[in-house]
Amino acid sequence: MRYRASALGSDGVRVTMESALTARDRVGVQDFVLLENFTSEAAFIENLRRRFRENLIYTYIGPVLVSVNPYRDLQIYSRQHMERYRGVSFYEVPPHLFAVADTAYRALRTERRDQAVMISGESGAGKTEATKRLLQFYAETCPAPERGGAVRDRLLQSNPVLEAFGNAKTLRNDNSSRFGKYMDVQFDFKGAPVGGHILSYLLEKSRVVHQNHGERNFHIFYQLLEGGEEETLRRLGLERNPQSYLYLVKGQCAKVSSINDKNDWKVVRKALTVIDFTEDEVEDLLSIVASVLHLGNIHFAADEESNAQVTTENQLKYLTRLLGVEGSTLREALTHRKIIAKGEELLSPLNLEQAAYARDALAKAVYSRTFTWLVAKINRSLASKDAESPSWRSTTVLGLLDIYGFEVFQNNSFEQFCINYCNEKLQQLFIELTLKSEQEEYEAEGIAWEPVQYFNNKIICDLVEEKFKGIISILDEECLRPGEATDLTFLEKLEDTVKHHPHFLT
Asked: What's a GO biological-process term for it (predicted)?
C-alpha cells in the first residue's frame, strides 16, 4: 500500500511538473534572470511576446520591472489587487507595478530611508499611467493622516491639471507628457502621506506655436473650447471652433475620436477646486490660456517703409484686457525691439518676419511662465501644514520620476533633442546601477559568471555634453560669438568638430 501510494505520488509530481513546464512554455518566465539563454535578445523579446499574449504585461529583471503597454484596461488595478500585493514579499506574487510600489514603501518604513521609483521608456510606453497607478496605490493603502485625506486627494488631483497643461497628442501617444516631472511624496513616522512637492523640467513650449502634422497643442486649449461654459467663452472672446485659431490648426487634427475634451474639462475644473484654486485664480488662469490663442491670431502688414504694423485690432483689444496691459505697450512690444546701448534705450522697428517671431516668442514665454506658476501653486497646496512640528523631522520621502518619452521625428525640435538626451542620461544611470556595477562586484569577489555584453551609451552622452567638443558646447559658442550666427554656421561648426564621430551624421 505504501509503495502504491508512493508510486501514485511520484506520478502526481511528474504530472504537476509537466503542467508547470507546459504553462511556462505558454506564458514565459516571470523573471528574465531565469531565462536559459539570458544573453539572447531574441529570447528576451520572445518571452515578452508570450507573456503579452496571455495579458501578462509585467516581467522582472531582478528588481527592475519591465512593462508593455496593452493600450486597453486589463482590470488589474482594483482595490482587490492592491490588497494582494500589500505587505507581501517581492517574489511571492506575480510581477506587478504594485509589487514595486509596496517594496519601496516598506523599505521606506522599515529602514527609514528615502526611496525613489524611476519610470523611463519611449513615448507611449505607459509612464504617465504608471505614475498615476503608483499614487493611487499609496492613496488607497497607506494609513490616513491625522488631519484627514486632503493631501491624498490633492496628490491625485494634481495629475489631471498637470496633464491638461503639460501633455499633448503626438503621433505615437494621445496623452504624451511634454515635460519632465519629479514628485516627492512625504510620509510621517506612521507611514501616512502628509505632503508633496513637484519639480518640473523643460516644458516643450515650442508646441504652443507649432505642431507637426497629426499632432495637437497642449490639451487645455481644446478642453476649454469644447467644455467651457458659454459665458466663460464670451468673456474670453473665444469661439468653440478650434479651427479658428492659428496655434491649433498646424497639426491638422484638432478633433481626435479617442479624446473626450468635454469630459476632461470637467475633470480639470473639479481638480482645480480640490487643489485650492479660488474662482478668481481660475479666471486669471483661463484668461492667460485665452490670451495665447488670441496672440496666435495677431496679424501684421508692412507699411511704406516695410515695417510691421498690427492689423487685427479686435485681437489686440482682447489681449490688453486679458493680460491686463496697456494697448500701446503691447503694440510696441509686438512691432519693435528695444536696444540698450551705452545706457540709452533705442526702439528699432521690426519687419514682418521679425514681428511674427516676436509674437510667437511672447506666446511661448507667457505659456511657459503660466506653467511654472501653476506648478508652484500646486506645490503650495501639497505642502505639509505641520512643517514646524517636531514630528516633521522624522518624515521620509518617496520620489517618483516620470520623465518625458524619447521620440525620433522627421523634424526634431530643440526640446525633443533635449528630451532624448535626458533619456540617454537615464539609460546611462540604469547601466551604471545594474549591468556595470553588478558585474564589477562579481569580478571583485571572484565569482565565475558569463559576462553580459551591452552597449554603453556613454559615447552618445559625450557627443552631446562633452566640454568644448560636445553639441551643446558648440551651440553655446556659436550663440555667443560676434557676427551673425545661423543654423548653417552652427552646422558647419559641428562638421568641423565632430564629423568623425561614429554616431554623428549630417
From this structure: actin filament-based movement
**How many C-beta atoms surround the C-beta of residue 66 within 10 A?**
17
Residues 6+ apart with CB under 8 A from 443: none
Is residue 270 marked as binding?
no
Instruction: Give the span between the Cα atoms of 488 and 482, in whole angstroms.
Output: 15
Cα-based torsion angle of the residue sequence 341, 344, 345, 351 in order, rounded to the nearest 10 degrees: -40
The ranges assigned to domains in the chain are 417-498
pLDDT at 4 over 60: no
How many Å is the maximal CA-CA distance in the chain? 112
Q: How confident is the model at residue 165 (pLDDT cuts 50, 70, 90)?
A: very high
CA 325, CA 313: separation in Å to the nearest integer? 15
Question: 166: annotated binding-site residue?
Answer: no
Mind listing the pLDDT tens digit for each residue in 289-318? Answer: 999 999 999 999 999 999 999 999 999 999
What percentage of the chain has pLDDT greater than the value 90?
A: 62
Q: Count CB-CB contacts under 10 A for residue 164.
A: 25
**Residue 250 annotated as binding site:** no
Residue 70 near residue 57 (C-beta atoms within 8 A):
yes
**Percent share of the chain, pLDDT over 70:** 92
pLDDT digits (tens, 9 = 90+) for 473-496: 999 999 888 888 888 999 999 999
Closest Cα partner for 250 from 279, 219, 217? 217
Catalytic amino acids? 123-124, 128, 173, 176-177, 405, 407
In CATH terms, is domain 417-498 a member of 1.20.58.530? yes
Q: 296 a known binding residue?
A: no
pTM, full prediction: 0.86
